[in-house]
């Protein structure tokens, strides 16, 4: 029998965002690409789900939530089988399961068990409402394709009349009445033959053809309405920037290509899109700073691991200051603002240094020095770029209690006492080590998650786990894939349609 009180048990988790700084960048990039997320991998799922909602209403005549879950899970399992049978189709959920099912050789294939909610079954996906509920519904709500507010009246998310229903009909027209009828029959049974999987391939993400359905996606993504909402215009401008980068490169861009061009952005992109490019630059300097701060956290964690009983905050402060004096004996006459003013880091070097911080080659000691240089370079960028400083103030100024490049650069700029080593040791102990303890305590209280990377014991911090800096991922890969799906970008850059769209917005 366990006589310990329940509250002493802890749910240990790896813990993301240990300094509470990533969230500031995440909030910004969510506003830069609303309607697209890191887990909405193919644009045709939007049409598929709008069709699924309409078909369910027409053929099942019920608002029973369990019946809807059955319908959507069968659809996703079948979609995975279609994709795997066809081959070469990325971004479709459940392909690991479908690979195993098809390899078993059965024909016809009964996929009822794979689509079930039975936790003991061999299922295509564990999430109860599938990838629809896990990834797509929130973004389709943002795009006004689904109405989740009215769903409170009948327990089901429903495609909207204004945008969702036209897309559902366009999807049905694109796949044809015979394929639509076959799709519904397979969902009813649920059984499919391999020959039928071949017929159903018309519904796959890569098979969007020229016509009304493709035009719906383009109109939706690029906010081609008389009075677009602010969020729609923001998405449109980001996608136009992606198209311009593809045009400059003459090939399909990678997300890193887009980030680089939007970060540097001098004389390469249209002035009409400069406000949106500047917002992306603000996001990226924020992401670089949080990477640098995380490198300092990793450095401090290493210091606690030097001794079995860890170190006190005072000892960490002493160690940080000593190592900085050892690294930079010639800079101790500078204060923080002097270090910032002396920075001469160019864009390419800054970007390479951030990659080094997130890499595996250098020691944590070396990464910490690089991180400090990166922070100084970023602070100088803000000091010499009033446009960027204003955007950083605007983008991060309303986040009450949150940490960002704005709060951290301002804190450092106000440190007037002590040499450079002392100021940086203060930053590591006060803004990094103590901040992690605050964030971990909040997660423990609010979520029951134990994410401490060091534990407090008798006034000392004892090593628990290490943390490596990671960048945030701002939805660019799915956005690029969406543009490929609707034939605006190809392997050689812009398609004829892509060039025509850019010209239309100029």
The averaged pLDDT comes out at 94
- The side-by-side strand order for the widest beta sheet comes to 1-6
Helicity, as a percent range:
55-70%
Number of helices: 23
Q: Biggest β-sheet, characterized? A: 2 strands, parallel
Rg, nearest Å: 26 Å
Structural class: mainly alpha
Strand content: under 5%
Q: Please give the number of β-strands.
A: 10
Beginning-to-end CA distance, first to last residue: 73 Å
What's the SSE blueprint?
Blueprint (H helix, E strand, L loop, with lengths): L10 E2 L9 H11 L11 H17 L4 H22 L8 H9 L5 E2 L1 H4 L14 H13 L3 E2 L3 H4 L3 E2 L4 H12 L1 H12 L2 E2 L1 H6 L12 H10 L8 H20 L5 H10 L9 H31 L8 H15 L8 H7 L4 H11 L6 H21 L1 H11 L8 H9 L6 H28 L1 E2 L3 E4 L2 E4 L12 H10 L3 E2 L2 E2 L1 H9 L2
Parallel strand pairs: 1-6
Antiparallel strand pairs: 2-5, 3-4, 7-8, 9-10
Structure description:
With 506 residues, the protein is mainly alpha-helical. It has helices spanning 22-32, 44-60, 65-86, 95-103, 112-115, 130-142, 151-154, 164-175, 177-188, 194-199, 212-221, 230-249, 255-264, 274-304, 313-327, 336-342, 347-357, 364-384, 386-396, 405-413, 420-447, 476-485, 496-504; strands at residues 11-12, 109-110, 146-147, 158-159, 191-192, 449-450, 454-457, 460-463, 489-490, 493-494. Residues 1-12 have low confidence and may be disordered. It has 3 domains: 44-207, no CATH class; 221-274 and 475-504; 280-463, no CATH class. A hairpin with a 2-residue loop joins strand 7 and strand 8.
């Amino acid at each position: 029998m366990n006589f310990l009180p329940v509250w002493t048990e802890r749910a240990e988790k790896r813990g993301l965002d240990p300094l509470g700084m990533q969230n500031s960048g995440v909030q910004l990039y969510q506003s830069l690409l609303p309607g697209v997320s890191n887990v909405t991998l193919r644009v045709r799922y939007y049409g598929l789900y709008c069709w699924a909602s309409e078909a369910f209403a027409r053929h099942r005549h019920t608002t029973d939530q369990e019946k809807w879950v059955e319908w959507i899970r069968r659809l996703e399992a079948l979609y995975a089988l279609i994709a795997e049978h066809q081959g070469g189709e990325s971004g479709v959920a459940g392909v690991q399961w479908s690979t195993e099912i098809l390899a078993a050789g059965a024909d016809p294939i009964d996929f009822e068990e794979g689509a079930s909610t039975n936790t003991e079954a061999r299922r295509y996906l564990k999430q109860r409402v599938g990838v629809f509920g896990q990834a797509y519904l929130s973004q389709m709500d943002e795009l006004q394709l689904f109405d989740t507010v009215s769903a409170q009246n009948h327990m089901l998310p429903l495609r909207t009349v204004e945008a969702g229903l036209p897309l559902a009909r366009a999807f049905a027209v694109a796949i044809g009445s015979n394929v639509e009828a076959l799709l519904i029959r397979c969902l009813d049974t649920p059984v499919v033959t391999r020959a039928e999987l071949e017929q159903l391939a018309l519904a796959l993400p890569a098979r969007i053809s020229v016509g009304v359905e493709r035009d719906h996606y383009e109109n939706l993504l690029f906010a081609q309405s008389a009075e677009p909402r602010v969020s729609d215009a923001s998405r449109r401008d980001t996608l136009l920037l992606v198209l311009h980068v593809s045009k400059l490169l003459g090939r399909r861009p990678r997300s890193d290509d887009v980030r680089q061009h939007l970060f540097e952005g001098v004389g390469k992109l249209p002035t009409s899109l400069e406000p949106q490019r500047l917002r992306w630059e603000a996001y990226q300097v924020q992401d670089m700073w949080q990477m640098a701060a995380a490198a300092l956290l990793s450095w401090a964690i290493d210091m606690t691991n030097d001794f079995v009983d860890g170190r006190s905050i005072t000892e960490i402060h002493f160690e940080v200051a000593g190592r900085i004096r050892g690294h930079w004996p010639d800079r101790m006459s500078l204060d923080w603002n002097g270090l910032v003013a002396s920075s001469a880091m160019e864009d390419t070097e800054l970007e390479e240094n951030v990659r080094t911080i997130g890499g595996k080659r250098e020691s944590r000691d070396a990464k910490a020095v690089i991180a400090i240089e990166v922070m100084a370079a970023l602070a100088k960028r803000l000091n010499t770029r009033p446009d960027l400083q204003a955007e950083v103030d605007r983008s991060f100024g309303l986040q009450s209690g949150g940490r960002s490049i704005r709060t951290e650069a301002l804190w450092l700029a106000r440190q007037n006492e002590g040499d450079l080593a002392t100021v940086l040791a203060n930053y590591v102990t006060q803004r990094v080590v103590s901040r992690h303890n605050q964030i971990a305590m909040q997660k423990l209280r609010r979520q029951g998650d134990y994410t401490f990377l060091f534990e407090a014991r008798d006034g000392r911090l004892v090593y628990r786990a290490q943390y490596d800096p990671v960048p945030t991922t701002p939805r660019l890969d799915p956005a690029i894939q969406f543009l490929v799906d609707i034939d605006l970008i190809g392997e050689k850059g812009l398609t004829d349609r892509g060039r025509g769209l850019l010209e239309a917005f100029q």
